[in-house]
Design a protein that fits this description.
This protein is of the alpha+beta class and 145 residues long. The chain contains 5 helices and 7 strands, in the order H-H-E-E-E-E-H-E-H-E-E-H. Strands 3-4-6-7 form a 4-stranded mixed β-sheet, covered by helices on one side. A 3-stranded antiparallel β-sheet has the order 2-1-5. It starts with 11 loop residues before the first helix and ends with a helix.
C-alpha cells in the first residue's frame, strides 16, 4: 500500500500542546486531536540500531521500559529524536519511515515479543499506545489509508 501525501509538517509546539492537554486533562477530545495529528504526519521517526540476525542485519528500535513493559521509541520529528538521543547520551540511527512502514515495523516487533507499545516524544511531550491498537487508531484517525 502506498502512503498518501502527508497533510501537515511536524509542528513541535502543536504536539506539545495536544499531548499536555490529553495527558493532564484526561480529555477524550484532546486525545482524539493528538492522534489525528500523529496520523496526519507522512512519516514517524524511529531511532534504533542495526542488529545482526541469521537473515542479515535488522533495524531494532530503541526500547523503553514503561511500567515494566517494553515500548518502542518513536518521535513526531527528527530534531526531537536527535535531542532525545543527545540528552540520554545515546547513539542510534534515525529512520523516518512512511506511516504504514512504521506501523508494520512496530507490528513485527510485537509479533517477536520485543515491544508491546510505542511511546512518542519521550522526554518532552510523551504519548503512547499499545501496538495492537495501532490498526484501530489508523482506521479512526486516518481512514484514507
Amino acid at each position: 500500500m502506498t502512503d498518501p501525501q502527508p497533510n501537515t509538517e511536524p509542528n513541535p509546539d502543536r504536539f506539545d500542546r495536544l499531548s499536555h492537554q490529553a495527558n493532564t486533562q484526561s480529555d477524550p477530545d484532546a486525545m482524539h486531536a493528538l492522534w489525528d495529528a500523529a496520523f496526519e504526519l507522512g512519516h514517524w521517526v524511529i531511532p534504533g540500531r542495526a542488529e545482526p540476525t541469521p537473515e542479515g542485519d535488522a533495524f531494532a528500535p530503541l526500547i523503553a521500559d514503561i511500567d515494566g513493559e517494553p515500548f518502542a521509541a518513536a518521535f513526531t520529528d527528527r530534531p526531537r529524536a536527535e535531542r532525545f538521543l543527545t540528552e540520554q547520551g545515546e547513539t542510534a540511527d534515525i529512520l523516518e519511515l512512511p506511516l504504514i512502514g512504521a506501523i508494520e515495523l512496530l507490528a513485527d516487533l510485537a509479533l517477536a515479543g520485543a515491544a508491546t507499545g510505542v511511546i512518542f516524544n519521550d522526554g518532552t511531550a510523551p504519548f503512547l499506545a499499545r501496538i495492537a491498537d495501532l490498526p484501530e487508531l489508523l482506521a479512526n484517525h486516518a481512514p484514507g489509508y
